[in-house]
Amino acid sequence: MIALSKKSSCSSQLCLALCAFGLLLLGDLSQAVPMDDQDYYLQEISNRDHYYSFPYPGEEYFPFTEQPGEEGTIRAAEPEEHPGFKPSRKELKPKKSSKKGKSILETPPDCPPLGLETLKITDFQLHASTAKRYGLGAHRGRLNIQAGVNENDFYDGAWCAGRNDPFQWIEVDARRLTKFTGVITQGRNSLWSSNWVTSYRVLVSNDSHAWTAVKNESGDVIFEGNSEKEIPVLNMLPVPLVARYIRINPRSWFEEGSICMRLEILGCPLPDPNNYYHRRNEMTTTDNLDFKHHNYKEMRQLMKTVNKMCPNITRIYNIGKSHQGLKLYAVEISDNPGEHEVGEPEFRYIAGAHGNEVLGRELILLLMQFMCQEYLAGNPRIVHLIEDTRIHLLPSVNPDGYDKAYKAGSELGGWSLGRWTQDGIDINNNFPDLNSLLWESEDQKKSKRKVPNHHIPIPDWYLSENATVAVETRAIIAWMEKIPFVLGGNLQGGELVVAYPYDMVRSLWKTQDYTPTPDDHVFRWLAYSYASTHRLMTDARRRACHTEDFQKEDGTVNGASWHTVAGSINDFSYLHTNCFELSIYVGCDKYPHESELPEEWENNRESLIVFMEQVHRGIKGIVKDVHGRGIPNAIISVEGVNHDIRTGADGDYWRLLNPGEYVVSVKAEGYTAATKTCEVGYDMGATQCDFTISKTNLARIKEIMRKFGKQPISLSLRRLRQRARQWRQRR
Fold it and tell me: Rounded to two decimals, what is the model's pTM?
């Protein structure tokens, strides 16, 4: 015991001596470094442990070692292309030269983004020298990330350094050797302040300790940054460099602001067959589809190709034209294209109302290819869906806006380029506000103007030529009124959630408030059917795209509780037609790089199919007279649900309902009302619930009188004439 104590005492003295020696060395070192550099050096030392505190799942961490014979150097990239990488034809178009003489790149970069915007790069892979506060930490330094309205401590719009000096940096750990080729930067997204970096250096490293700056013949390259906070600026490295880490070191910034950046890194990860972690997490698809971004001409050609492959189940048509005269093409998929079949529901997907949200557009183009191929292959699920459903796919509602975004290219259009139509209108919120008409009528029960709870007519002011209504919006409304759609989804981007109506709050004094429809339980199920089958929407481990965490509602949200919008397509569809419409936000990145499309397809493929299948949930039937003729415009009511629907031209109807027992009534002008109980089961497939109703006595009398050229005389008029005769007789 005594010997052990002596040994412990010696060890303690030795540790103290070593610590003192270390402090002495650190003091000497600090004296050798300029005052400004001391703080920078100590920041690096204090932050370095953080790099190794997050090892890869399922494997130990081993820092990269330098190549034999090349210690302390960074290898330039080999001229040969990565054998597994397919360069895109039109991606990441570089910024044009400015008046300052910025050079123009002749060819687009051949490496895709690493994934800061798409969240492939995790928060643990982003580090910075300092940060103003948590909400402005390195994890917020992602291209196009949006700040909350309040710009609070958790969700702000950039990485902002804690101090304004040339020793600040933000760093990305690629977690594998990567050929870095370029950097894209933005300033801070903010309603209240203006902050951006005007110039910066780029450094790379293999171990996060020894750094090499990007150089040219005259020394370190100083890259030109941003001149405002929203437009992305692309800078290509003079020579691609292979390393694991890349660091951005701001050198100057907006004089009235501070150091704040959002960025994306371009790079090609190098193959590493020995790294099981990366091979296990690489997303692949077995579907042989055209994974690329399609401009207007290419989209039209792809539709023709699908129609040529499957002429018996597809039809191409257009619903109108855009402001610039481009036709709004749609593809119909059905076993009898071109005609409505009695008893068969109609479904629609639309995308591209915001022209810069292009992922939805490409998903619809991929979906039509997939359904054609699977139908030809005899996939029973797809065959059954096509034979029992009339499906309409409209991939580009706003082709004019898309053209602007496409010309800028992926990552360089910012958050809003191409969002609006050519005449500056947001199509998604350009529909008549029928909510206010309905709610005013309900609040003023004694009002002479009664508004029905369904098929509310469009106000006259909206139909006038002077109304601010896009031609694309008018075309969609005419399409919605012509075809008896039952269910629809409009694909959008910039978030990962399914939003269901109402989208407008009922209270005038609130901007966010849960505002349910009478069919709230049905809408919540429809939203969950998509979100729950998406690969990421309900994943509790995933990071929020921007400021909203939708996990508490399993990847779904009531539109009005998110942000209020008047005149949305969802609310209009519900109140003016029979169609239940939802907004499906399919990805954080509005315009993902072409290389991301296969993974995005895998994320959404099952959800797209499952959501279409929901059109067969609830009850369906035909309302006929005693002679077997369908009765159009008959009103279908469900007890306890203050929202009715109407039959189509052939007397058929579809009413989306969750499993349960319902008392259903039908009424039509000139016919006696009828009621029956219909039960909806849990198995897929709508319950048949037909009605046969007869004409009322008054309707039959009117029909007989019209047939013989006479009109029935009203009782009040008959009494007046009788009194007149009696008065004349008395005289």
Answer: 0.82
Q: Domains, the chain, ranges and CATH? A: 123-272 (2.60.120.260), 296-495+575-615 (3.40.630.10), 619-695 (2.60.40.1120), 699-729 (no CATH)
* pLDDT tens-digit readout, 234-258: 999 999 999 999 999 999 999 999 9
Residue with tokens 């369906």: 620
CA distance 247 to 252: 16
Q: Tell me the pLDDT tens digit for each residue of 635-687.
A: 999 999 999 999 999 999 999 999 999 999 999 999 999 999 999 999 889 99
d(CA 334, CA 346): 10
Report residue 483 as tokens.
């075809």
Backbone phi, psi, residue 45, to 5°: -65, -45
Paired tokens of 179: 């050929």
SS3 assignment for 284-345? CCCCCCCCCCCCHHHHHHHHHHHHHHCCCCEEEEEEEECCCCCEEEEEEECCCCCCCCCCCC
**CA proximity to 130, closest of 165, 172, 173:** 165
Q: Which two tokens stand for residue 346?
A: 């109609």
Residue 176: which H helix or E strand, with range?
Answer: strand 170-186
The pLDDT confidence band at residue 110, using thresholds 50, 70 and 90, is: confident
Which residues, 6 or more positions from 677, have their beta carbon under 8 angstroms from its beta carbon? 661, 662, 663, 664
Q: Which residues pair with 581 in a beta bridge?
A: 488
- List residues bridging with 252 in a β-sheet: 199
| Residue 17 φ then ψ, to 5° | -65, -45
3-state helix, strand, coil in the chain (%, to 5): 30, 25, 45
Beta 215-216 vs 159-160: how paired, if at all?
unpaired
Rounded alpha-carbon distances, angstroms, from residue 642 to 38, 89, 450, 617, 690: 71, 53, 15, 19, 21
Sequential DSSP letters for 307-320: HHH-TTTEEEEEEE
pLDDT (0 to 100) of residue 551? 85
Neighbours of 127 (CB within 10 A): 21
CA–CA separation, 362 and 601 (whole Å): 9
Alpha-helical (H) ranges within 140-265 are: none
Q: Which residues contact 62 (CB under 8 A, 6 or more apart)?
A: none
Tens-place pLDDT, residues 455-504: 999 999 999 988 999 999 999 999 999 999 999 999 999 999 999 999 99
**DSSP code of 278?**
H
Strand-strand pairing, 635-638 and 687-688: unpaired
| Cβ pair 564, 620 in contact under 8 A | no
Other C-beta atoms lying within 10 Å of the C-beta of residue 603: 20
pLDDT of residue 709: 64
CB–CB of 213/74 below 8 Å?
no
